[in-house]
Prior knowledge:
The structure is a single chain. The protein is α/β, with parallel strands linked by helices. The chain has 2 domains: 4-208, Aldolase class I (TIM Barrel, Alpha-Beta Barrel), CATH 3.20.20; 212-289, no CATH class. 41% of the residues lie in helices and 14% in strands. The chain has 14 helices and 10 strands. Helix 3 packs parallel to helix 4 (82-91) and helix 8 (181-189) packs across helix 14. It starts with a helix and ends with a helix. Residues 18-21, 23, 42, 70, 72, 100, 121, 142, 145-148, 175-178, 196-200, 285-288, 290 line the site of flavin mononucleotide.
Amino acid sequence: MQTRITELFGIEHPLIQGGMHHVGLAELAAAVSNAGGLGIITGLTQRTPKLLAQEIARCRAMTDKPFGVNLTFLPSVQPPDYPGYVRAIIDGGVKVVETAGNNPQQWLPVLKEAGIKVIHKCTSVRHALKAQSIGCDAISVDGFECGGHPGEDDVPNFILLPRAAQELKIPFVASGGMADGRSLVAALALGAEGINMGTRFIATQEAPVHENVKQAIVAATELDTRLVMRPLRNTERVLHNAAVERLLAKERALGASLRFEDILPEVAGVYPRIMQQGDMEAGAWSCGMVAGLIHDVPTVEQLINAIMAQAHALITERLAAMLR
Length: 324
Ligand SMILES: Cc1cc2nc3c(=O)[nH]c(=O)nc-3n(C[C@H](O)[C@H](O)[C@H](O)COP(=O)(O)O)c2cc1C
């Protein structure tokens, strides 16, 4: 399948694996790229730029296909060494960067000069238009369904995607709630040029996370996610567990006076314990409503081939037959 996204990134299928903290390591990114999609290493999961450089080299040893790096710009008192991470990306010869969080404007000149394509992930049309105006090459439009940070506007993809199509000139992919060939065809119909998936890629053989995480996604239904940190305007969609229940109880009790420090035990530094050690009650971890559509743990190649085969059949058989 050819779309503006496959052409922009030089990939076979319009399928992207979004950056995921402590999941987007070289093993997963390489598997996605080898299967014809665009795999993405999560920059900040590597504690230093030097470690990111090593992770990029590891990924390059596993694939000769294009892959990207995610740079998440978080509001923080002690910001990570972003210039160092950007240098590691450029020196590592990476040609695609997925930015997320704050406006990436400051980093665009140096990325562009290095010939790097930038896809900015955002949750509203106004942020997408801003990203287009500052020179981003593409947008990942992240709907309210998504795992991770859906923003504060709560607009689901059935509205957000056609709104993006009405406004944007640069290509965009649909992110949030995407799982299969149905998702891909629907996203294309709504104006997107491909899909970005997070949660679905965690439940794959190659995802370098504990088996408990994969099984938790398979066991979850579409009713099992919760929104946390809304009072802090840092909303995150996470899988429900005991830690999330405690966190929500604190939010109810403290109301508008809630501070980040109040919920540190439930959110700070919990990812390695969940993703690597499989301690599923260690804290709050991002997961999309799409968990309700995930019932298996295939290899990445099986997943991608199944998505493309289902999309092809939907377009050429089911939809085409309706026009006869
Ligand atoms: C466990 C997990 C961790 C994530 N970490 C990040 C991150 O560090 N940076 C980022 O930009 N997005 C992150 N995301 C969001 C994904 O890249 C993607 O946008 C989102 O998962 C799409 O929604 P879906 O889960 O419904 O497919 C994360 C998502 C999950 C599920």
